[in-house]
Amino acid sequence: MSVSPPLADLSRLYQTEFIRSARAVGVLWAVCTLCFAIIQVVVLVQPSWVGTAEVHHHGTGPSPHVSGTLGLFEVCVDSDRPVPDCRGSLSSLSPLASFQSVAVLVGVSLWAVWTSVLCLCLFRFCSAATVYKICAWLQLTAGFCLALACLLFPDSWESPEMRALCGDSVGSFSPGNCSVHWAYILAILGILDAAILATLAFVLANRQDALLPPDAKDGEGGDKDKLYCHCNIVQRD
C-alpha cells in the first residue's frame, strides 16, 4: 500500500521537527554538563564545607570560640584582617590528612565529568548514540564518587582540624559548634545533577534510532544507503 504524497510530506515534517527538538535538548544537556564540571571544581577547592555556627557570647571579654570555615584542603579562621587566615596546601593539592579519601573521591568525580565534557568533541567522529552513552556512564561514575564523598565526609569529623574549629564536642556525624556550609550542600546537589544528566544522556542515546526513517531498519544494501542519505537531507532542511 503506497503512502499518499500529503501523508509523506506530513511525516517528513514531523521528522524534521523531531530532529530539531532532539538537537535543542542535546545542546541544553551539553551546556548543563559544562556547568556541572565547573561546579565540581568549586566544590573541590572551596574551604566552605563546614563552618562555625552562630554562638551567642555573653560578657565583656572576647569570645572563646574560634570562627571560620573548613574544606578538604584548607582551614580558614577569621582574623582582624579583611582576608581570613587559611592554613592548608591548596597550591600543592595536598588535602587535609583526615579528608584525603574524600578529596580523592571528589577528584575522581571531577576527572569523570571533565572527561565527559571532552567527549563532546567525539560527535564529529562517532555516532551520537555512542557519545551519549559514554558520557552517561562517565556522569554516573561522577555522581557515584561524589555520593561516596558526601557520605564519608561526616564520618571524618573526628579530626584535629575539626576539634580546633568546632570544639571538643565534635564526633562522627556530629559537627559540634559548626554546621555544614554551602560547598557541602552544592556537592549534594551535584549528585542529583549527575543523575539527571546521565538519565537524559541515556534517553537521547536511545532516541537516535528514531531520527532515521521507519524503513531504515528493514531496508537492505543500496536501500539503506538511500534512506541514510534521505535522513541527512531532512536534517539539513
Automatic annotation (TrEMBL):
Topology class, membrane: Multi-pass membrane protein
Lineage: superkingdom: Eukaryota
The keyword Calcium belongs to this UniProt entry's keyword annotation: no
Keywords from the UniProt entry: Membrane, Transmembrane, Transmembrane helix
Major localization class: membrane
Subcellular location(s) per record: Membrane
Any single GO CC term annotated in Swiss-Prot or TrEMBL for this entry: plasma membrane
Keyword Transmembrane helix appears in the UniProt entry: yes
Listed transmembrane segments: 21-45, 99-123, 135-154, 182-205
Pfam families in alphabetical order: L_HMGIC_fpl
GO BP terms, alphabetized: sensory perception of sound
Official protein name in the record: Uncharacterized protein
Organism in which the protein naturally occurs: Anabas testudineus (Climbing perch)
